[in-house]
Amino acid sequence: MYLGPCFHQTVSIMTNKIMISLVFLFFSAGILQAKPGKPIVAATYNIRMNTSSDGINAWPNRKEEMKALIRYHEFEIFGVQEAFIGQINDLLEMEEFAYTGHGRDDGKDGGEHSAIFYHKSRFRLLGSGDFWLSETPQCPFRSPGGKGPTGVREAHGKKNQRDRSRVSCDLCG
Length: 173
Prior knowledge:
The relative contact order is 0.17. The chain has three helices and seven strands. By secondary structure, the protein is α+β, with helices and mostly antiparallel strands.
C-alpha cells in the first residue's frame, strides 16, 4: 500500500532521527561505562496509561510493584512512556527521585508524558528539552495515523559533584 511521498519521507526522517538518538544514547553510555567506577544503572518503561478497563492490571494494582522493582534493581535513571501526571506523582512518592518532562498535549501536565527520572543524590540535571520527529523538530508533530505527537525528551546531567562525566539521555514517546 503506497501512502504517498510525504508519508514515506516523514517515516524516513523519523527513522533517521530515531537512529541518531539511539546511536547518541549508546555512545554516551559506552563512554560512561568505559571509565573506571560503577556503571550507571538505567531502564525505560512503557508503564501504560491508567485505565480501569485494564482490570486487575490497572495502574493502581501495578504502581507499588513498579516502585519496588525500581528500588530492587537500584536504578539511577529511568524513563517512562504513556505516563499521565497522576502516575508521575505516584512515582515521585519515591522521594529519592526527581524528573524532567511534561505532557505532550499542553506542554505542562496534560496528556501522556515521556519523562526521565533521576536519583537526586547521584545526579544533577544540567538541562533538558524536547524535539519532535519531523521536518520541523521544534514543533509538535502528529505522525500519519498516530494518536499524538511523536517526540523525544532529552536530559543532560552530571553524575555528582566530584565526577566530571556527563550523562545524556534521549527518550522517545
